[in-house]
Structures are given as structure tokens and as C-alpha cells.
């Protein structure tokens, strides 16, 4: 918000940014399959040269726990989409993470049965490109993945993998240039 160019520590980079207001909820999904909730207003406005707050300390995360995805919401609308290395995908309504009490930490935020490859907060349906370790790519519309109410659901199979194969990368297919998209 303040003027000046954003300063970063050596080795850090900005992956994503959005403009919002102080009353929104920030949901930090971590590598320990948990989600930490706080308001954007819990973080003080500072100059770009201050380098910000360390999220793991600010939210009281466990030793070795790091945030891997951030969802920003003020109405808990939309879905969380989780792709796992074993070829499964889970679609969970964001409303499943809303709480009546003011709890900061929610356990079992997503499945721990397979490593998480990709997470996204979807406000509307979109095409996704799934890349496998076999060098193949599959286009999937997010509407084809059925929603489950359970946060830590293992999901449904979206791609059949052979032994020792896995999903290695997922990205939105909107700007993807394909020679033969139908194929």
C-alpha cells in the first residue's frame, strides 16, 4: 500500500499477489495437512522495505510446518481443488473451512494419503492441464470432479497411472498453446 518498490530477502520471490481489504479471511494451507485462518487486518501495514512478517511465526505453526497455499475469501464461496501425486483429485467446498468459533487452526484440511501436487481456490469452473511423470498431459474441466463435503477426502481418480508413475505438475490451461487441443 505504501509507496516504494517491494524489497525481498535474497532467494525470495513473489509468486502471487492480489488486492483486497482488511476484513477478508486468509486461509494458509500447510505441509502438515492443516489450515490456519486469520484476517488480513491481523497483519500490520508496513513499508515495502520492512520485508513483512514471517507467517509461520505470526500464526504459531508447528516446528517444520510451512505454508504451501493461500486462499483469500470474505464469503467462503467457491471450492478448493487438490491434486495428489497418486492421480486423485479432491474438490471441497470452501464453506467446509468456515467455523462458528474463532478457531485459528483446523486439522485435516486435506488428505494425507498421497503427496499434494497442486492446490487452487476456484471461484468458477476452468480447464486444467495435468502433467504425468510418463510425459503425458490430460486436460480436465474442474466441473468433472465431484464435490465432497469431507475436507480430508482422498478424492476421485482423474488420471489412471501405471506403476511408479505420478502427477508431477498441474496448471490452468487458459493460456496453454496446444497444436491439437481436441487430441
Question: How would you describe this structure to a colleague?
Answer:
- By secondary structure, this protein is mainly beta.
- It contains one helix and eleven strands, in the order ββαβββββββββ.
- It has one helix at residues 55-58, and strands spanning 25-30, 35-39, 67-73, 79-84, 88-93, 105-106, 116-122, 127-132, 137-141, 156-157, 167-172.
- The model has no long low-confidence stretch (mean pLDDT 89).
Question: What is the makeup of the main sheet?
Answer: 4 strands, antiparallel
Q: Averaged pLDDT, please?
A: 89
Instruction: Provide the β-strand percentage band.
Output: 25-35%
Q: Helical element count?
A: 1
Structural class, judged by helices and strands?
mainly beta
End-to-end separation in angstroms reads 46 Å
* Extended strand count: 11
Strand order of the largest sheet: 3-1-2-6
The helix/strand series, from N terminus to C terminus, equals EEHEEEEEEEEE
What coarse outline follows from CA principal-axis ratios?
Answer: globular
The low-confidence runs, each spanning 5 or more residues with pLDDT under 50, are: none
Please bin the fraction of helical residues: under 10%
- Whole-angstrom Rg: 18 Å
Amino acid at each position: 500500500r505504501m509507496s516504494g518498490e517491494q524489497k525481498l530477502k535474497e532467494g525470495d520471490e513473489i509468486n502471487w499477489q492480489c488486492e483486497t481489504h482488511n476484513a477478508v479471511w486468509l486461509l494458509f494451507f500447510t505441509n502438515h495437512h492443516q489450515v490456519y485462518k486469520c484476517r488480513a487486518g491481523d497483519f500490520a501495514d508496513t513499508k515495502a522495505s520492512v520485508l513483512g512478517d514471517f507467517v509461520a511465526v505470526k500464526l504459531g505453526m508447528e516446528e517444520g510446518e510451512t505454508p504451501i497455499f493461500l486462499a483469500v475469501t470474505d464469503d467462503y464461496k467457491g471450492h478448493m481443488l487438490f491434486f495428489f501425486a497418486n492421480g486423485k483429485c479432491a474438490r471441497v467446498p470452501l464453506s467446509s473451512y468456515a467455523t462458528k468459533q474463532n478457531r485459528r487452526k483446523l486439522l485435516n484440511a486435506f488428505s494425507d494419503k498421497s503427496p499434494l501436487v497442486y492446490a487452487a481456490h476456484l471461484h468458477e469452473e476452468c480447464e486444467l492441464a495435468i502433467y504425468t511423470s510418463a510425459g503425458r498431459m490430460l486436460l480436465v474441466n474442474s466441473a468433472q470432479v465431484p464435490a465432497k463435503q469431507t475436507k480430508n477426502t482422498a478424492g476421485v481418480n482423474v488420471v489412471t497411472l501405471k506403476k511408479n508413475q505420478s502427477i508431477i505438475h498441474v496448471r490452468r490451461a487458459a493460456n496453454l498453446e496446444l497444436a491439437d487441443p481436441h487430441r
